[in-house]
Amino acid sequence: MNRPLPKPWITAISPYVPGRSTTDDGRKVAKLSSNENPLGTSTQARAAFAAAAATLDRYPDAGATALREALAAAHGLDPARVIHGTGSDELLHLACGAYAGAGDEVLYVRYGFSVYPIAARRVGAEPVEAADRDYATDVDALLASVTDKTRVVFVANPNNPTGTFTPRGELARLHAGLPADCLLVIDQAYAEYLAPEDDDGALEMARTLPNVVVTRTFSKIFGLAAERIGWAYGPAEAIDAMHRIRAPFNVTTAGQLAAIAALGDSEFVARSRAHNARWRGWFEGEMARLGNAGIRAVPSKANFSFVLFEGALDAERAYRGLMDRGYIVRWLPGQGLPHGLRITIGTEEETRAIAAAIAEMAEGAA
Ligand SMILES: *Cc1c(COP(=O)(O)O)cnc(C)c1O
Predict the structure, then answer these.
(1) Are the beta carbons of 200 and 173 closer than 8 angstroms?
(2) Which residues does the record list as N6-(pyridoxal phosphate)lysine (modified residue) (predicted)?
């Protein structure tokens, strides 16, 4: 061969497709395709970000010490076992890369987060999908898919793109059924949207069990998606292994300072959670009224709703109709979901307009 060839497991990757912010004809419209916070960012976090301009010539703190200590204090954790990442995306890759390689299997539920198969293939491991149960994580199906090659199991809770939730008891049952040498990675990108009574126990598992890692992000409720800041918690050995393969200066100074300030602004987080709960509930109620038109929202505990279109109005037409009206949502035919749309809960105005547009299109299609 007279040229360098990428490794076959790399060319086997289907590249990640980000949520769009423009229409087919290039118009910039309301972006409800990436689960960002419609209330923006905490003003305190913005101020901290701006202040970081004073030290642009200096490398960031490679250990993100102040950020890890703030996270540990906020959650009652050991700061030495908190690891920071360039978004939680990096941490998902690190956990996978530390525990899986050629000949190993990485397991997750069908309709799971699209980064899991990428993380698996990147390190030469085989991605394995377990069946879902009505779009939700099916613990029995996951356990039935475990083989002696399974090294890592990914579960997002709440799940993306379906918004479904795996309760504490089910998560514990999954862990109890896994072989002890299997790493369970619980991806809690939307954990801050959960009501306190919905605590799934994941952080407690990561605190006490030798094979559970939890990942979290500042991209969603904290409104810091642009800065790429995530964190993870787990057993010392796993965190140590992940540190060995992370990029040395993986979170910027501005990002570290903004994240600490965002963590301290509990009023903004509470307001974001309340806004989401209110308008997600309202939106799900509106979709329930369209049941006769074959439209159904999968029950969500995240900051988006996954809406199924199984009647005269199909998801692709709804997607294009919403785009024409100025709203970009997420249509995921490439993930085996040509019949659904993932719609971020936006502002009141956006949420009302999208529900009205779907109702109008459904009526037009009947
Ligand atoms: C958004 C999201 C992430 C990560 O986002 P980062 O911006 O990389 O922190 C991780 N997992 C799930 C399920 C998500 O939806």
Answers:
(1) no
(2) 220
Phi-psi region of 45 (alpha: psi -120 to 50; beta: other; left: phi over 0): alpha
> Rounded distance, CA 68 to CA 171, Å?
26
Structure tokens at 125: 């491991």
Query: How many Å lie between the centroid of ligand 1 and the Cα of residue 188?
Result: 8
- Among residues 211, 180, 218, 9, the alpha carbon closest in space to that of 95 is found at 211
Give the global pTM. Answer: 0.97
Q: Is the CB of 225 under 6 A from ligand 1?
A: yes
Whole-number Å distance between alpha carbons of 97 and 244: 11
Per-residue pLDDT of 301-346, as tens digits, reads 999 999 999 999 999 999 999 999 999 999 999 999 999 999 999 9
- The finding on whether 37 has its CB within 6 A of some atom of ligand 1 is no
Contacts of 283 (CB under 8 A, 6+ apart): 297, 305, 343, 345, 351, 354, 355
Residue 98: the pLDDT is: 98
Ligand 1 centre distance from Cα of residue 221 (Å): 11
Query: What are 152's strand-pairing partners?
Result: 106, 183
| Location of structure tokens 């790429």 | 228
Asked whether the beta carbons of 301 and 160 are under 8 A apart, the reply is no
